[in-house]
């Protein structure tokens, strides 16, 4: 077995490896190419430039979403060479996105059956995710690493500041008003706009997504059928922007709705139009992944965020 090659970086003098321990958790801050790895083998790759940002800044999107992932794959494999010959291969979980889909079968009103739907990304972000999925697949196919790519639905409700993702407003319509801040709805010009009903999104509760990403790391490799790839669609539920606004009113009151400003953003709309509103979960549920209840899942996501706000105020 021959290791993939790469040009080693000359690290600046300020780069250090910091190991923080406590409560059974280890946090390591380091360069990813040639660090001491403190026995770490398995990896979840979570970071990236989101859809809107990757579309707006082509070079940055590729540098972060493609090049850094390839460096990490190479680094992981080089570290694996120091393991005993009979040791399990390190697990690499690449957190991808349903943005890999696009084309005529992937409009907001479409129902996607993954096996029957070609990968035709409608954004630079989707292309970048597809490229890394293929890299990861090949590292798995060659036996270098035990690789898995998990394609996330829209995650709700994301904490923190708005991101550059085109779907960021899905969380923002709940997150900002519940904190007394204005939120922008970029796909509609008023509460009467039919886009609030005609542009559904495929979403999952944050807790469910975290559970499914963790499961992807420990899932038996035998769950993958030979010749069928190593990519997994994390299950989701369909939710419309109007249902999100209704949930805001239910959980926050009518006054919170008044904090929503309708302001169409064509760049956001163009990206969102390339995303299907619903996917078949069956194959991935059979692999052991979990889905939210379609009737209660989004309400629970809102309640989770409210609970987090309350905890932070104590």
Automatic annotation (TrEMBL):
Domain (NAD-dependent epimerase/dehydratase): residue spans on this chain: 62-181
Keyword terms: Carbohydrate metabolism, NADP
Transmembrane segments: none
Name of one Pfam family that matches: Epimerase
Protein name: NAD-dependent epimerase/dehydratase
Species of provenance: Cryptococcus deuterogattii Ram5
């Amino acid at each position: 077995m021959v290791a993939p090659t790469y040009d080693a970086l000359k690290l600046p003098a300020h780069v250090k490896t910091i190991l923080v321990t406590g409560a059974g958790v280890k946090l390591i801050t380091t360069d990813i190419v040639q660090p001491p790895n403190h026995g770490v083998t398995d990896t979840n790759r979570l970071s990236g430039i989101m859809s809107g940002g990757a579309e707006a800044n082509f070079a940055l999107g590729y540098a972060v979403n493609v090049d850094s992932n390839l460096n990490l794959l190479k680094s992981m494999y080089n570290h694996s060479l120091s393991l005993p010959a009979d040791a399990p291969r390190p697990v690499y979980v690449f957190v991808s996105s349903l943005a890999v889909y696009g084309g005529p079968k992937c409009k907001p009103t479409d129902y996607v059956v993954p096996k029957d739907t070609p990968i035709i990304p409608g954004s630079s972000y989707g292309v970048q995710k597809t490229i890394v999925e293929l890299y990861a697949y090949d590292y798995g196919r060659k036996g270098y690493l035990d690789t898995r790519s998990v394609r996330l639905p829209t995650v709700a409700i994301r904490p923190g500041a708005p991101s550059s993702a085109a779907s960021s407003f899905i969380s923002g319509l709940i997150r900002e008003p519940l904190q007394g801040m204005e939120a922008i709805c970029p796909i509609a010009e008023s509460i009467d706009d039919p886009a609030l009903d005609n542009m559904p999104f495929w979403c999952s509760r944050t807790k469910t997504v975290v559970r499914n990403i963790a499961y992807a790391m420990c899932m038996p490799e035998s769950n993958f059928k030979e010749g069928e790839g190593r990519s997994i669609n994390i299950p989701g539920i369909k939710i419309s922007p109007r249902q999100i606004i209704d949930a805001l009113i239910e959980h926050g009151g009518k006054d919170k709705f008044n904090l929503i400003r309708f302001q169409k953003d064509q760049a956001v709309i163009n990206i969102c139009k390339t995303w299907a509103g619903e996917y078949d979960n069956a194959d991935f549920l059979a692999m052991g992944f979990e889905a939210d209840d379609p009737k209660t899942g989004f309400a629970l996501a809102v309640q989770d965020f409210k609970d987090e706000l309350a905890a932070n105020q104590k």
